[in-house]
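Task: fold both queries, return tokens.
Query 1:
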Amino acid sequence: MENKKAALQRSLGLLSCIVLVISAIIGSGVFKKAAPMSEVLMKPTYVLLAWILAGLISLFGALSNAEIGGMFADSGGEYAYFKKIYNKFFAFLYGWGSFAAIRSASIAAIAYVFAESLNHLIRLPDIGTDSISLFGLHFAANLTVKLIAATLLIVLTYINYRGLRLGEAVSRGLTFTLILCMLIFIVTGLFSSHGDWNNLNKPATNYVAKPFFSGGFLALLFTAMLQSFWAYEGWNNIGYLGAEIKNPQRNLPLSLLIGTLVVITLYLLMNVVYHYISPIDDIIARRTTGSGIAAVDIAGIFLGKGGALFISCLILVTTLNATNATILMAARIYYAMARDGVFFKGASTIHPQYNTPSTSLWIQCAWSIILLFSGSFDQLTDMLIFASFLFYGATALGVFVMRKKAPDLERPYKVIGYPIVPGLFVLFCLGLFIYTPSQRPMEALTGVLLILIGIPFYMYWKKKNQVA
């Protein structure tokens, strides 16, 4: 039973919220996705276009989310919003989907990249590299890396168990460090004598031109954008802390807008440096040569071995930061569900000393570790992108629903460019929902099944706890 004396505290100001938005977004994607996106589009300007479009679409989603978040700020983010926009059952499906696939898989995937990068820097003995395939998922591949990742999840969960301010302080320090390091990389790269601006106009050797608005080109552009969406994933996490934000009606929308714009700018400049320093043929080749991470090898070109080490360490910082931020924020969803009687009862517990959803944090940790051992990095990210955009679209659609259902309800923030901005975002989410199963059928099916498995649990908890 929830401790009546303990409660979540409104302790996060605007700067803390902006830091948490940035820390939840910036992970490994901006370092790892340059080569696969280049391989798909084979022209630097198109790669940059894919990053810009994916950033704008994410911004449209953040702006739409901000209107709803400003109206209904509470623990659980979209879970709290969907109860008011749609109904408790749909809200439960989101919360269960976050637990079963979306947020837990994100935590597992980012922690895996951290462990992979650490193992590349400090080569540890391979405990086991054989994998067992079952229904398209790979079990126990690279056991050393997964054990490192599991240890990280336990340590970070403990830090956030000990208090919101401690978890937020870790994110703040790491975020300022990574922004500073990214700016150093950008400035030194753009002013390096090793670069050539003509590289940005040179397509790959095997490039075959397609009309810009042809179906073939747009399909390739969409495929590349799916890669970059992993890098932008997490912009909505700040909404989960709605009950712990000071003046949330103001600070929640502002932090979403400012934080997302900062990330878009950093991502674009990082990719300009990649293509300025290295021809696209070399970037594509680095997917299978060198470190396997284009950013690491490109830093080695203009900064030497120290530069490659610098970026490798930066990837450690960013993945550590993103893992910590997602653990901190996502656990609030399950706390809110348990408080409503539609999740494991213990998850509603607030620690009497640390004022954190302590049990919810450990439940999240346990399931994330199970997901970590159940699938590869790419499988996890493909699964969560498909599942998450189902609900992102529902949030943007909620802007239209609430404008019609409750036109007089106070809106501290109104989405810029209504109805075009939320409308375009809804259409994109619909397109992603249709497109992904044809390209990643097993991952899409797994994500949907994990969400639907929650229905029997909902019926059980609803009956047991007499939920209306």
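Query 1 returned. Query 2:
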Amino acid sequence: MFNDTIVAISTALGEGAISIIRLSGNDSIEIVSKLFKGKNLIEVNSHTINYGHIINPEENSIVDEVLVSVMRAPKTFTAEDVVEINCHGGIFVTNKILEILLTHGARLAEPGEFTKRAFLNGRIDLTQAESVMDLINAKTEESLNVALNGLDGKVSQLIKNLREEVLFVVANIEVNIDYPEYDDAIKMSNEILKPKIFEVISKIEKILEYAKTGKILREGIKIAIIGRPNVGKSSLLNILMREERAIVTEIAGTTRDIIEGYINIGGIPLKIVDTAGIRETNDIIEAIGVKRSIKALEEAELVLLVLNNNEKLTESDKNLLKISESKQRIIIINKSDLETKIEKELLKNYIETTMLDDKSVDVIEKKIKDIYNLGDIKTKDQAYISNSRHIAKLKLAKRSLEDAIESIELEVPIDMVEIDVKDAWMTLGEILGEEVGDALLNELFSKFCLGK
């Protein structure tokens, strides 16, 4: 399909033991063989590693000692001839080899172009291609398992099974249209098509329910710690992170900007943001921090609202209770080791902690697990739909099938019902990469790293 040969550095650019430079395309073996001093790469067996040196033909000088892997089509990631050069991991030497390859027939790959070629060459479908990026970005074992299930084709099979069931409905409609004398259209719609469509809708609804968990596994949960100054927000961040990420003092307003960190609870990555204390202030710098804190609150999926057990509720506390009430929220009454002055009777569903011991962490983590049902998540065998694009397409397919049910109930002509059912079938196909345009593909693969 492709006439040119692409090349890119596939490892992170920096100093290290090795770097890998990858080529894919019809001329990849020939291009490298001209620059390789060692065995004749054109004659070596596929899937072999060959020791030698990369030379600079213009200067007739050795650039680096290397190992070159030769993999012939079609049994490669891209289904094309692929060559990988393992060189020493210096920035200069890696870039020098890349430069020589570019001047001898290879073209610099676009972001994600290796995976894009794997998709366009039929090596993987679009869900598997997107799982490659999920695999790279995985932050926990559970998110890794979700990505691996997608890469192994479990998500693809889930969608293919749905498409087959929708195709059964289409086939029955086609038979009735082609041979109307064999059956009554209304009777067939009510006795065969309608129950089957309801069955597919039910399966999609179940997948979408699981997708809520899948999205959490893939993207994690955004958590904002909010409260007025000096109630213990930074201390809370530090004990959750189990390290000193934020400065803790008795001086109100110490935290002037948001501080971020990741923790892992029940295999779920949680992005925690410690915000500046939200209050009225004349300090310009602190005011900017407060503004950013309010934005973090708006973007958060879970809010940890910290209050001081040793003080009565202030107007600032009451305002924070009000602006966060529409959010998923955990109210934390901190400094429970001190005299109680806060009006607990005005609060609901709170937990009490002191930031002086690890028990507070256990209480907070348990509460988070309970809210998101993180205790029973199993990712080894479950194919979770976690990609936002996939979820959106499933919802569209479900809507089309619901339209088909509505048409059947209104006794609309059977060929009109078929339009909605076919729309569902096509939409499910778009998840796998069938019937998708170049613009969507370019957008999806542009998010990949350069050498992938």
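Both queries returned. Flag for query 2: The two ends are 19 Å apart (CA to CA).
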